């Protein structure tokens, strides 16, 4: 405890770090305030609105609500949150990999990055307008419970809601960019994490109340659930930070009167190079039937009903297969063994016992394939853990914290933020956050978006 207090004092003693933390907290406070501002045209004091808001969104819509920090079920101006921007960013990231013209733009340096960011913003507006229209239909649907709380009828309500939601998403995107520039950590990731954590206290209280109704045995079950959640978080930390180190030697070179090279280093290959992207892709595809039937989910049948219930065995099976497939696909897109082999050869590096060039690329690719399979299976298990938790009678809100995208994002963002704080401490010659070693955050392309 004494060391923890000393570490906090060291963090607060660094002016630049203190300023960044303060700015980040202020932007987070603005975001959380906006999640409680109800859309114009709705009566937040009506009984129907309060009943619908307290019930919350179910199925995959509940996942949307989790990312938005409860703003989705509260019919807030930030109801869509940052997710349209995430969708646009993922699409542009894939296009820069698949489309040669965009690859050229990306390689133009700072100017190319600005162009892609601007195109991403334009695409965000289009995605937000589409999702805002679907959200209006959801509000008007009798099953949602918000219809009787609408005070404005017809075109005016649709127009006001679409404009407000679009402006709200763009403002949240702006907050994320300001956190990225002036604050601490990846702004978009911080906003998503804050939205997820915003639902944690309420979910904990609901779960505790649910188990308390069983008496003493229910309290024991609640404590076991907390212990299992901590164990899952520890496993996710291993998944996020796990790497396979490939030994690399560098040939000695004589430059002038100095001998350089000859060092033995390691090429870290991540067990989960794809990060959270496979889960996001799988959920996006599984969400499409739900999006089409958003206005009539209670009467949904067949595949739509299956895709809306993440505790359904068929849903978990299809979802797992898709996560494993997307893990291999996305890893193949972002991981290029030939490029790594060429870079090693250019820098006079080689893997012991492997010839440079094509044999090195085949060797690295074979290792990547071997470690990607267990990583993909573990990622699929993480994705379906909330469904298992719900089947074990964990409340729907609390079950989302037992795995899936929400927990994986939280663990990754916390590790990234702690790594940045530790970097500031070490630069000022303070001790790090851990005595056993340095904090390692996520690495690779996936951190640029999530």
What portion of residues belong to β-strands? 5-15%
- Could you give the order of strands across the largest sheet? 4-1-5
Broad CATH class of the largest domain: Mainly Alpha
Helix content: 55-70%
Contiguous uncertain segments of 5+ residues: 444-448
The total number of structural domains is 2
Series of H and E elements: HHHHHHHHHHHEEEEHHHHEHHH
CATH topology of the largest domain: Preprotein translocase SecY subunit
Q: Output the structural class.
A: mainly alpha
- Between the first and last Cα atoms, what is the distance in angstroms? 32 Å
Shape label = globular
**Number of distinct beta strands:** 5
Highlighted features:
18 helices; globular; 450 residues; 2 domains; single chain; two-stranded antiparallel sheet; 3-stranded antiparallel beta sheet; 5 strands
């Amino acid at each position: 405890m004494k060391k923890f207090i000393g570490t906090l004092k060291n963090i607060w003693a660094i002016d630049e770090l203190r300023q960044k933390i303060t700015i980040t907290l202020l932007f987070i406070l603005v975001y959380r305030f906006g999640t409680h501002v109800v859309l114009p045209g709705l009566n937040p004091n009506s009984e129907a609105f309060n009943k619908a808001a307290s019930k919350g969104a179910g199925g995959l819509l509940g996942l949307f609500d989790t990312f938005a920090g409860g703003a989705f079920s509260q019919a807030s101006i930030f109801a869509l949150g940052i997710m349209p921007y995430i969708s646009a960013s993922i699409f542009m990231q894939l296009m820069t990999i698949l489309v040669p013209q965009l690859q050229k733009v990306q390689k133009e340096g700072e100017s190319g990055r600005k162009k892609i960011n601007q195109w991403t913003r334009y695409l965000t507006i289009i995605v937000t307008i589409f999702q805002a229209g679907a959200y209006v239909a959801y509000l008007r649907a009798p099953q949602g419970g918000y219809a009787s709380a609408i005070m404005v009828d017809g075109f005016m309500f649709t127009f006001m809601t679409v404009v407000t939601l679009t402006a709200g998403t763009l403002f949240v995107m702006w907050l994320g960019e300001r956190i990225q520039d002036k604050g601490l950590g990846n702004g978009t990731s911080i906003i998503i994490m804050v939205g997820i954590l915003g639902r944690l206290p309420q979910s904990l209280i609901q779960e505790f109340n649910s188990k308390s109704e069983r008496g003493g045995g229910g309290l024991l079950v609640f404590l076991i659930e907390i212990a299992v959640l901590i164990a899952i978080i520890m496993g996710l930390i291993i998944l996020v930070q796990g790497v396979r180190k490939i030994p690399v030697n560098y040939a000695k070179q004589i430059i002038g009167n100095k001998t350089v090279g000859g060092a033995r280093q390691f090429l870290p290959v991540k067990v989960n190079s794809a990060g959270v992207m496979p889960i996001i892709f799988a959920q996006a595809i599984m969400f499409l039937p739900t999006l089409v039937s958003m206005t009539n989910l209670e009467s949904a049948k067949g595949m739509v009903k299956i895709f809306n219930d993440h505790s359904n065995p068929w849903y978990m099976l299809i979802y797992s297969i898709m996560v494993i497939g997307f893990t291999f696909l996305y890893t193949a897109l972002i991981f290029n063994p030939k490029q790594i082999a060429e870079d090693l050869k250019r820098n006079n590096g080689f893997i012991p016992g492997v010839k440079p060039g094509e044999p090195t690329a085949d060797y690295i690719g074979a290792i990547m394939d071997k470690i990607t399979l267990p990583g993909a299976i573990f990622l699929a298990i993480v994705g379906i853990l909330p469904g298992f938790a719900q089947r074990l009678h964990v409340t729907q809100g609390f079950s989302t914290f037992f795995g899936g995208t929400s927990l994986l994002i939280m663990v990754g963002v916390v590790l990234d933020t702690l790594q940045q704080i530790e970097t500031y401490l070490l630069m000022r010659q303070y001790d790090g956050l851990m005595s056993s070693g340095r904090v390692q955050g996520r690495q690779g392309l996936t951190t640029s978006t999530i």
